[in-house]
Design brief:
The complex is a heterodimer.
Chain A (H helix, E strand, L loop, with lengths): L1 H31 L10 H10 L1 H35 L1 H16 L2 H12 L3 H25 L3 H9 L4 H39 L8 H10 L3 H33 L12
Chain B lengths: L1 H4 L1 H15 L8 H22 L5 E6 L9 H8 L2 H4 L2 E6 L7 H6 L5 E4 L1 H9 L4 E5 L7 E6 L14 E3 L5 H9 L6 E3 L6 H5 L3 E6 L3 H7 L4 E5 L11 E5 L2 H4 L1 H20 L2 H10 L5 H15 L2 H6 L6 H13 L21 H6 L8
Parallel strand pairs in B: 1-2, 1-3, 6-7, 6-8
Antiparallel strand pairs in B: 3-10, 4-10, 5-8, 5-9
Helix pairs in contact in B: 4-12, 4-13
The chains are: A mainly alpha, B alpha/beta.
Chain lengths: 268, 363
């Protein structure tokens, strides 16, 4: 009980107080300087817009979330597979790595319309853009985790005459877990950005729409309050996905990796 | 002054909007953006000659899109020297995808802007003090194009197809609200007719003076459905300014309106020079498209009302109808819908227009 209360006081309270302070200052600033709505909505207006469009925002967040998660899952699978491929030989890594960097450096906004032409409008196009944006951190981290191995350990495995599969399974993969969790934390936020950018170019069809649509449509008619509410939703969505990935990562690390957070149960 | 203090916020917002929304469905291919950057250079070269005269009042005019036939009259006023004769040094700033014209005018980052009537009502609903002072296009050029072979005669025939349409513009939301559109998949408008040409079950938005011509030129067989025939007909390419300008700088607004009206009258008769300037600023727009555009614009500018009362006139009934439609299609809340102060014809009255023409002798 006490520990729970301490946790609430110590972890939850400071950011909550800060949030309340920011909202208060924001409200004060808009009323003191009489800032017009088309520039900045008041927190109250944002709240009202959120309340008024609650059902729409919820549906849009769900759709964008589905697109982002699908892109992120694909990136995890393909990124890890690519890392495995790169870990097989220096030549493969050297000849393909520049193209992996290409994925990272290409301006996604510029090529999104092209990607949509290839993968079609609607959900598939959104997932494709989200996938491309979130792929690179997984590739680099997987590759680094699979290849940066303590030379002594490699020699040890050699001494015991371990085959390539055993080295991969017992040495390289466990070593890569920590890297992969880091990569996943970076790319899960990118997957939401990718889904929103994808939606702007790909759309979702005539009846359903995601947050990217809401944001462009609302800013298009200067409805800043609704736009802010939608932006807040996309931030909360990113936060939710990031929290889930972090918790899952901690759990995996605690089980399978030396670097995981230890519980104070092991006594010397 | 309040609005000056906010000018930097308006600029920042403008930049943020432009950055965050670049690549929206409406934007053309990246190539168009490159040429747009080049266009700025041309504009500056052209303007430097005119800036030499210190007796002229410098004003800026922000376009809502890359220079096109829809801006023709303003370019005619520029190239034929009507602005200069009126004592104005007008610098026309090309727009692009999602240029925040209303925000820039409301924040006084520019003196005048070009925008469609629906955006003016949205802007005023969001406390942006902008007002329409002249509306050259009485009939909205907004249209959909479908394949002739599809047998579609009317909006009600749109079914089981792909429809490429902006997800932001008021007309699109109105169509979506009004039509049943069974089996129609609405996708963002890509800014060209490429998909239309390869897909027989594809319809898309356009401006009547541009997309149909381009599609035909490239071997397509488009049929045009005018959105105005559905009754949704906002004034287009409207000249707007800040509310405070009406009192503080009435003479500048009067000169600007009069010279722009002259420009539009000229453009309908003799568009070549204006089109050349447009082509120079936006090389994507070929001269033959622009020539077709100027021809197609004539009935849109000179409808019955304009024939009787002159180019640029606006009526309360039309503004009210637009406001009602935006409320009906749930784009504006009833409490926000107010056309009072959204437009004024006071700078258009013939006697004032004549008085501001330098070559007309005053009695």
């Amino acid at each position: 009980m006490i520990r729970a209360r301490n946790w609430v006081l110590g972890t939850m309270l400071p950011p909550a107080v800060f949030f309340a302070l920011v909202v208060l200052l924001w409200q004060l600033a808009t009323s003191v300087w009489k800032l017009p709505t088309y520039l900045v909505p008041t927190p109250l207006e944002v709240f009202e817009a959120g309340q008024e469009h609650f059902a729409d925002l919820l549906a849009a967040t769900r759709l964008t979330g589905a697109g982002a998660l699908a892109g992120f899952a694909l990136a995890l699978v393909f990124g890890t597979a690519t890392g495995l491929l790169f870990a097989q030989s220096r030549i493969i890594e050297r000849s393909l790595y520049p193209y992996a960097i290409f994925l990272q450096t290409v301006p996604i906004v510029a090529i999104a319309p092209v990607i949509v032409m290839w993968f079609g409008h609607g959900f598939s196009g959104v997932v494709a853009v989200s996938f491309i944006l979130s792929l690179f951190p997984i590739i680099t981290n997987a590759t680094a985790g699979l290849t940066t191995i303590d030379a002594n350990l490699l020699e040890l495995f050699e001494v015991y005459d371990a085959g390539a599969l055993a080295v991969l399974w017992k040495l390289r993969l466990p070593n890569a877990v920590g890297y992969l969790v880091t990569g996943a934390k970076i790319s899960c936020g990118l997957s939401v950005i990718g889904a929103i950018v994808g939606e702007i170019s790909a759309g979702f069809g005539s009846q359903s729409f995601g947050l990217g649509y809401v944001i462009t449509a609302a800013t298009g008619k200067l409805d800043t309050a609704y736009a802010f509410a939608a932006i807040l939703c996309s931030t909360l969505l990113s936060l939710a996905i990031f929290t889930a990935v972090t918790l899952l990562g901690n759990w995996i690390l605690a089980r399978w990796h030396v670097s995981g957070p230890r519980r104070a149960t092991v006594k010397p | 002054m309040n609005s000056n203090r906010f000018a930097w916020i308006a600029n920042l917002t403008a930049i943020l909007f432009a950055v965050s929304l670049a690549g929206c469905g409406k934007s053309p291919a990246p190539a168009a953006k490159v040429s747009h950057a080049g266009a700025d250079h041309h504009a500056q070269v052209a303007d430097e000659e005119e800036q030499a005269d210190p007796t002229l009042t410098a004003v800026t005019l922000q376009l809502n899109w890359f220079p096109e036939a829809e801006h023709g009259g303003y370019f005619a006023a520029l190239v034929h020297g009507y602005y200069r004769e009126a004592g104005l040094n007008v610098r026309i700033l090309p727009g692009g995808a999602d240029t925040p014209v209303v925000q820039q005018v409301a924040g006084r980052a520019v003196t005048f802007g070009i925008i469609n009537a629906d955006k003016i009502l949205f802007g005023r609903a969001a406390q942006a003090p902008v007002v329409a002072v002249m509306a050259p296009l009485q009939v909205s050029p907004r249209c959909l194009i479908v394949h002739k072979s599809s047998g579609i005669k009317d909006f009600d025939d749109l079914k089981n197809m792909t429809l490429a349409m902006s997800n932001v513009d008021a007309f699109a939301n109105y169509l979506r609200y009004k039509l049943p559109l069974p089996g129609v998949k609405i996708v963002p408008y890509a800014g060209n007719v490429a998909q239309f040409l390869i897909d027989k079950h594809y319809a898309q938005q356009g401006y009547v003076f541009s997309e149909p011509f381009v599609a035909r030129k490239k071997g397509g067989d488009p049929k045009v459905l005018m959105v105005s025939d559905m009754g949704f007909n906002p004034y287009t390419s409207v000249l707007i300014t800040h509310d405070d300008q009406l009192e503080e700088h009435a003479s500048i607004v009067r000169k600007m309106v009069a010279a722009s009206v002259r420009g539009w009258e000229k453009y309908l008769e003799e568009p070549q020079q204006a089109n050349e300037r447009i082509h120079k600023m936006n090389p994507e727009m070929d001269l033959d498209v622009l020539a077709y555009g100027a021809e197609t614009l004539k009935p849109l500018v000179m409808d019955q009302v304009a024939e009787q009362r002159g180019v640029g006139i606006m009526t309360r009934a039309r503004w009210q109808a637009l406001s009602d439609q935006l409320v009906e299609s749930k784009q504006l809340k009833p409490a926000q819908a107010d056309i009072a102060g959204a437009f004024t014809n006071r700078f258009l009255r013939p006697e004032e227009r004549d008085a501001s023409r330098p070559q007309t002798k005053r009695e």
